[in-house]
Structure formats: structure tokens, C-alpha cells
Amino acid sequence: MSSSVLFGTYARSDLAFVKGEGCWLETADGRRFLDFAAGIAVNSLGHSHPHLVSVVQEQAAKLWHVSNLYTIPEQGRLAARLCEATFADRVFFTNSGGEAMEACIKAARRYHYGKGAPDRYDIITFEGAFHGRTLGTIAAGGKDKYLEGFGPKAPGFTQVPFDDLKALKAAINETTAAILIEPIQGEGGIRPVPHEFLRDLCDVHGLLLIFDEVQTGVGRTGRFFAHEWSGVTPDLMGIAKGIGGGFPMGACLATEEASACMVPGTHGSTFGGNPLAMAVGNAVLDIVLDDGFIETVARKGLVLKQKIASVVDSHPDVFETVRGEGLMLGIKCRANVGAVVIEGREQGFLSVPAGDNVMRILPPLTVTDEEIDEAVKRLDATAVAMEKTLEAGASA
To answer: 150, 333, 387, 396: which one has the fewest Cβ atoms less than 10 Å from its Cβ?
Structure first.
């Protein structure tokens, strides 16, 4: 089928994969690629993980969808497991990260409405953030390139600079409902965002604290959720990507107090929390919450970061620095990141571009030490090829 019948919303590569296993993807003509993009941090357990495949096949033969008009037992099981492993007391299931963040935003505003303060609806967010593609979440992110052409920006969002406590405090007023932040900005370029002080700040002003852990969560940074590194806990948190291991699902996690006003009729989802998605989510947790799994992710992340740092040091005309936590790493490039990512594909290495001229490195959490070594070799080969390109351009 011609791609011309699709919306032109993606600058797609010509690569088309037909199968995958673990960290590897294969095209119809047999070319194999080392996947350190993982569907943009989605394929947390790699491709065709046997436990996920088995669970999906079993559940697909029984029941896919019934709607939230009825009790879905696996919803309760997955929610209980998420609550046991996190700060949360309640969970609302969605189909995507954007929907999870919309639920967080609505819950925060509804919380103040329930407290008799309906004018407290404004959410403070941070420049460089990305929270989704809905009209609400592009307003939360505040980037002009995502807002342009879609009419007036949805009201109720105030952006402050990335790391400016004075500006943040100045932005808080009588209409402020919550502060929304990614512990590490993903689309923004794998930038850790200072947030250790936010719990106290929110408590002083009666605000809710919302974490967007759509990309950072479910073991990605070497902790179950990235905010655990700081010890700061939110009132609301949006998750997606890794929790489905490749299957579309997300969730809004909340404390009892933050979710109390979300009563029947205030929110809903036709597909969210369907039996098939819940089976997959539980299967992902079977692996990720197994003893030692996340600790191994942290170890592998440190090894990968150290080895990438050596490559960065060896190619200063192409790369500048490496940053991030666990298996959520970013290489800030001196060369154009788009060109670096494309050259990586030529070397059979898949990565993801991000803001701040950063190349995102997001392998499956199941990556082996041998695959890390292979990735570093291909990254080095990418840099060598880029140096030749740069030299040719300089001499032309």
C-alpha cells in the first residue's frame, strides 16, 4: 500500500521491519538492526518476549473488550500491583501517555473544584517539556511548533524556564492548581529536571504535584519510577510506554485524596483497561518487578553510559556529552543529530533524535552485555562515518 494514502504527519524512514526478537529487528530482505530505540522507550522487554507472547495469545483466545460498564478482574489486579509498588492508592487506565496526562490534569483541577476553589485550574509546566499531542497536552508542553495552526492555546497552563526556582515561585498565584514535571525530559533531550524541592513547595501553597513518567517509568532509569531517585513523591502520575511492553496502554496513578473527586461521570474511556491490555500490563510487571531485574537495569545502564562516554571522548567533532540515567541515555551531538541518527541506521543501529541536538539511546531493558558491546561498536562506526562526512564537507 502506498504511503500517500496516510496522513503526512511523520517523516518516515524507508525502513520497514517484518519481525523482531529481543533487541533485534529484521527487514523483509533479511537486514538486521540493533534496536536501541525500542519504539521510543515502549518495547521495554524487547520484541517478541516469550512471556508476553504467551499471555497475549492466551488472553486473545478468551476476551478482548467488554467496556468499563462491567468489572474487569485483571484491572483490579494490575492496579493493586501498581499501588503496592508506588505511592498510589488509585489507578485509572488509559490507552496512551497523552490520555494518562489528560487524566492527571483533569483530576488536579477537579480536586480544587471539590475543595470549593473552582478558579484554581492553572497548571505550571516547564519549558522543553513534552506531555502529549492532545489539545490539552500540547498546551501543557507549550512548544510553538506543536501549537501552531490549531487555534487558540487551551487556557490554564503557565510555562516557566527549565531551571529557575525564582520564576517558578513567582508564577504561583491564587489560580494555580498544580505543578507538572518530567523528572527527566525525554523529547526535550534527556535533561534531568531539578525537582527535589517541589514537594515542600506544593505543600506550602496547597498545590498538587504531578509527575509525567510516561517515558521515564517502569524501570527505564534503573528505578521502577525515576522520581524514586530523589525520594520525592507526587499526588498524581501519568505512565504509559513501558507498562505495555509494546501494547497501547497507560494509566493515571493517584493518591486517595487527589482522586477522591473523580466520581462516576467525571471521566471515562471506552477502550482503557480492556482485558487484553490488562493481561499484557500484568505480564510486564511479572518481569520488571521480579527480584533483581531493575537492579540489573541500573547496572547495565551504568556500563552502557561509561562505554558511550569513551566513544564520545574519541569523537569530539561528532559528540559532546552523554547524560541520563539507567537505560534512558542521551548523547548531545556537535554534528546534526538527524544526520547522526540516519548514519546510525546505515550501521545497523537504531536510535531516536530529541531536542537540544540529542541522540536518545533507549534499548530494551532486557539488553544483554554482549548487545551493549555491539551497540558501542556500531555507535563508534557511526561517528567514524560522520567524521568522514564532515571532513568532506569542510574541504568542498
So the answer is: 396
pLDDT in tens for each of the 396 residues of the chain? Answer: 455 899 999 999 999 999 999 999 999 999 999 999 999 999 999 999 999 999 999 999 999 999 999 999 999 999 999 999 999 999 999 999 999 999 999 999 999 999 999 999 999 999 999 999 999 999 999 999 999 999 999 999 999 998 899 999 999 999 999 999 999 999 999 999 889 999 999 999 999 999 999 999 999 999 999 999 999 999 999 999 999 999 999 999 999 999 999 999 999 999 999 999 999 999 999 999 999 999 999 999 999 999 999 999 999 999 999 999 999 999 999 999 999 999 999 999 999 999 999 999 999 999 999 999 999 999 999 999 999 999 887 776
Please give the span between the terminal C-alpha atoms of the chain, in angstroms, as a whole number.
Answer: 40
Concatenate the DSSP letters of all residues of 155-200 into one string: SSEEEE-TT-HHHHHHH--TTEEEEEE-SEETTTTSEE---TTHHH
User: What's the pTM value of the predicted model, to 2 decimals?
Assistant: 0.96
Full set of structural domains in the chain with CATH? 3-45+293-395 (3.90.1150.10), 63-288 (3.40.640.10)
Name, in order, each residue with C-beta under 8 angstroms of 190's C-beta and a sequence gap of 6 or more. Answer: 184, 323, 324, 328, 329, 330, 354, 358, 360
C-alpha cell read off for 237: 502520575
Distance CA 83, CA 88 (A): 5
User: Are 167 and 159 a contacting pair, CB within 8 Å?
Assistant: no
Which residues does 264 contact at the CB level (< 8 Å), separation at least 6?
Answer: none
Cell of 313: 571522548
Asked if residue 217 lies in contact with residue 243, where contact means CB atoms within 8 angstroms, the answer is yes
